[in-house]
Design brief:
Two copies of one chain form a homodimer. Chain A is of the alpha+beta class. Chain A folds into two domains: 5-144, Jelly Rolls (Sandwich), CATH 2.60.120.10; 147-219, Arc Repressor Mutant, subunit A. Chain A has helices spanning 6-9, 12-15, 19-27, 109-117, 120-146, 149-160, 172-178, 183-195, 212-219; strands spanning 29-34, 39-41, 46-47, 49-63, 69-75, 80-81, 90-91, 95-108, 165-167, 199-203, 206-209. In chain A, a hairpin with a 2-residue loop joins strand 10 (199-203) and strand 11 (206-209).
DNA sequence: CGTTGATTTGATTAGATTCAACATATGTGG
DNA sequence: CCACATATGTTGAATCTAATCAAATCAACG
């Protein structure tokens, strides 16, 4: 049916299924390539699928009536979205936009629901995933509500950092919106960090953390 | 074992269980009365239970290092918390405080996990509940990040409103923190709404909405 | 009726947004 | 591979909103 077994076999929530179970899932799945800029769905759209990101990056956002964007999640390989459709046909309350060319699998929610009801395993995995995402969102909430832009940026850098190297996975505007500040403030605050010798820039999307303690200090 | 069958029989996530299943759940449950002000757990505590609110109100919050509070959720009858403990022993990343005298049931997470694995029903219900909470938190996030205090308050009033009557379920400071503003700003913005004849106050915790359209206009 | 906690009000200030201009980076077709 | 077009990023200056701090008032409860 699909040369994108990837979609499902390599995705955490389905990984542990038996061969027969996997075949069941495959029956209700299809996949599609999407280009950067494609809109998978828009706030208010009716959706009846669970979407699983097999390749690429998808941005989940909400917009204010003035058009200001709040990025909720950046989803990569293995992440899913549209889980509320599992329970009932659902007008989404957010938009999903492809920001890096992607392969996305869709699973019919009615059929998936059926499957899940007989596979506690899957249900449990989705449960785990959602719990984490909830915790994540709650933490974000705390930062948005309680922090100034330096704290927010420090937290972002520490989240992205690996061996003191930070590579921005998406452009700075999106990152800014992800932590709830404007791109101008993002730029200015980054500069402040550079002036303070907390960080050094290697390229536009790569920086080195020079004083991690200072950043940690900021968020505690 | 307990005269608080309430804890479980009346709580949505367990409501549909058969008698035998319910007996299984009862075996791993216990309940306890808590007074206003009691701390169920604190950020960083290790928890190994799922908590279900049978009566009263519990406030889930995070605090910044400066002590500023962000209320994440206000939980009432039937709501649960501590779901991450289902997956592994978990240091909580938030605090739970009783703000109205409560009866709280605790279910050992290891045993509950076991039970869930054989009861897709329960798993599915928790899944639904978490999905809703996630959506809720995401919406909150949008408001925190994208709205000014008038929009936030308008949204709060519309959320709480029933037949144009708003009764504040908890004190104003907590509500303010719930929508991510200070109590001073809360007070001032409420006053502005009164001056604009959007609302009228009946008592300290009761107001009437006089111009709902104006409030709706604010949030769109 | 006094004490404690909650709420309101006022004055000041800090911090981020906005808007506009400029600079840099990225991508495309010739 | 260059030149242009478009998208992304940076900087400055003005403005504005909500936070802060301090004080006054109000409400609830033993």
């Amino acid at each position: 049916m699909s040369n994108h077994l990837n979609c499902l076999t390599k995705v955490p929530i389905f990984k542990s299924l038996s061969k027969e179970e996997m075949n069941e899932v495959l029956k209700i799945a299809s996949h599609k390539k999407h280009q950067k800029g494609d809109l998978i769905f828009n706030e208010g759209d009716m959706i009846r699928q669970l979407f699983v990101v097999s390749e690429g990056t998808v941005k989940i956002s909400k917009y204010s009536y003035e058009g200001k964007e709040q990025v909720l999640h950046l989803l990569n390989h293995g992440d899913f979205f549209g889980e509320l459709s599992l329970f009932k046909d659902q007008e989404t309350t957010s938009s999903a936009e492809v920001i890096k060319d992607s392969v996305i699998c869709t699973l019919d929610s009615l059929k998936l629901r059926n499957l899940i009801e007989h596979n506690p395993e899957i249900s449990f995995k989705i449960l785990l995933e959602l719990s984490k995402r909830l915790e994540n969102t709650e933490t974000k909430l705390k930062y948005y509500a309680l922090s100034n832009s330096s704290e927010k940026l420090a937290k972002l850098l520490l989240d992205l950092e690996k061996n003191n190297i930070v590579i921005f996975p998406v452009n700075k505007s999106i990152l800014a919106s992800n932590i709830g500040i404007t791109s101008e403030t993002f730029s200015r605050t980054l500069k402040k960090f550079i002036n303070n010798k907390y960080i050094e820039t290697i390229s536009n999307q790569k920086i080195i953390i020079k004083n991690k303690e200072a950043l940690i200090e900021l968020i505690y």
